[in-house]
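Protocol step 4 of 6: record predicted structures for both targets in the notebook before any analysis. Target 1:
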Amino acid sequence: MKQTTRIVLFTCLFPVLSWAQDAEQQAPASPVRVESAQRDTFSATLWVSGTVISQNDARIAAETDGRITWVANVGSRIKKGEAIARIDAADLRLDLADSEAQLGSLKAQLKYRDSSLQRYQKLAASNNAAATQLDEAQSQLDMTRQDIKRAEVAIAQIKRRIKQAEVLAPFPGIVVERLVQIGEFVGRGAQVARLVDTQHREIRAQAPLSVAGWIREGMQVTVQHEQLESLSPVSYVIPVGDQRSRMFEVRIVATDPAWIIGSPVRVALPNSEPRELVAIPRDGLVLRGSNIFVMRVNDSNTVEKVSVETGIGLGGFVEVIGKVEQGDRIITRGGERLQPGQVVTITEG
């Protein structure tokens, strides 16, 4: 009876195992996403923080004294040479009228003293005038001419101050802050508004002195903003380190219009001598304890498991050391449960 029971159980299980094997063989190919391994000259990178700034950001000051009569509203777009604020120039115009009147008086004196000098010269020619009288007339005429020059300079200065009563924008931009209000009295040099040029932007990043030898102007670096990465050239390297932080400043061109002024970004700066190596996307690495491997798709769309070691980080890529060559298709999505020998289909996106 026992032998019969064992035979029955084996007979029942056999069809089940056969069905499972058939189902596995008939299972559809798993969809995966792949990216190619790259062989190129790379450098190790160091990510540093940066900020998008304006090349022109200034607190515009008044150049003359007076009461504020108008200030541009916050958000106003100002062209170069347009007024940001105006100062009451009524007193200056009165000073100008007074100086112009004085100049007219001096010109009248000049005409009179020029005539007097001519009369003394005629009298001196006939010995009817003393030499001292002639010298005195010449001296008075010369002093009047100098007084006229001083009066003309004073008028030019007043006109310049009247012109300065309009605080003009030295560059195009947007008023982001009003520092005075209408009716306030300001002195020369007082700040009236903050003007920011939003068209000409750049990235300011602080980098450790250890990477200074690998950075040069014009080189392309990776900039990351809100998980999006792009390449931008280095515009300036300021080779002066801070004594406390041991950092120096790097300026990078801000090419993306989405980077508004004040936006935080991350910049990948080179941190080693460039060398040739094979790199894959970081998503292609599979970690199982102390083992690191990648899943590669061969020409027959079959999965292969390749053990690797990792080298330097390259932003979104990482160096791999092992039997991985340029152009190998490495699975980056959909390979979590794949087994070597399994057939897959390649998907886009």
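Target 2:
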Amino acid sequence: MKLFLRATPVFAAALLAAPAVAQDQPLTVDMTEVYRVGGASAQEEWAFFGPAASLQASFDEAGNLLILDAMNKRVVVIGPDGQLVRLVGREGEGPGEFQSVIAFAVWRDGRIAVPDLGHSAIQVFGPDGGLERFVRMGDEGWPASSALFHSEIRADPLGDRIIARGVAGVLAAMANRANRRMGHEDDETPPRADDRALETLNLSGDEIAQEPILQGWRAPRSDTELSAADQEDWPRVVASMEDRYFEPAFVWDVLPDGTIAWSDSSAYAIKLASPDGSVIDVLRRPLAPQGVSRRIQRATIDYHLERLEEWSQTPPSTGLPFLTRDVEGRRRRIQERGFYHEIPVVLGLKATWDGGLWIQRRGEDDPWMDEGPIDVFNADREYLGTLPTSDPPMPAAFGPDGLVVHLERDEFDVPTLVVSRLRGE
């Protein structure tokens, strides 16, 4: 399926005024809403979802939308007509029930894998929603248990494996902090893959087998050792591990043939790797990173302070009682957080159902916001053109026959999932 995209004219004045934009071939896309579920006015109990931060969505090849509602400990399966197909899992300690989940992976045939820290296992469900098996973590301590902390995972289209982004150092700090509070020693064994790396979790045996795939680049920085007192100051621990403003992110996705696409630097360089992590191609566009001026620094801090003020006026919706609303601590972190010296071009990327790529860039006028134009590449790695900012926004997931889903949230963070269809040729 090919997307129906239309080119629009570019005027000579724009070509002279904005060299970076002049290299774009503007596109528009036809998108028709199919159904929406959720929101504060939802009629059915199953359509009341937890806060937006606790949701993940994916499609299967039948066009069903699968939603991990981590706060409510369930997977909601919605058919192409917008009606409930089934609920998978519920809160509990038994087989097929969830205790502590943060991510899921969906194969195209409808199978689901859900890591569950409470069960110390990954639970695998069949296309009918029935529990197929537990794949337990090994007895190797933190490196094995870290397999259950992954917040970004994808089903490997080539086998019975999960491809996962590694675990951030802040999670190791959380575990060590809990150990100290309980009088235990720190676990000094580092995770096998950090948050700028990918690894596979093999589910074919009785225990999870982890294998590193690739390591992304990390911007150099001067590490500062925290004192024993500072290590008990949780906001300071988090701040010490937090990326600087505009520090290049590690963004990634998996294409239907198993190819891995990722970006890890300021440049426009989308690396493509075979399933074993070997780089086979790099997608580039002649767009250079923008320097960080004092005006941009001030505007960035002001923007985040305004968002903090809005957040402080709404009721807590994390579903995690240990995350307190420390407004003053957050304000201090916003003001004291450092800046990387340039603004990366790439903000995010998503693989389409048929193997294309949508590459979201930072906006040139307001780079501190989490949105920007989207470059569209087809499955043959050909640049088709660029969609304007928020027209449409980056989908949360792509499905078959042009299906996409977007997540909307109201002022109280109540989520609505909107499924639309991109017009195909």
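Step 5 preliminary note on target 2. The radius of gyration is 22 Å. The mean pLDDT is 85.
Proceed to step 6 after PI sign-off.
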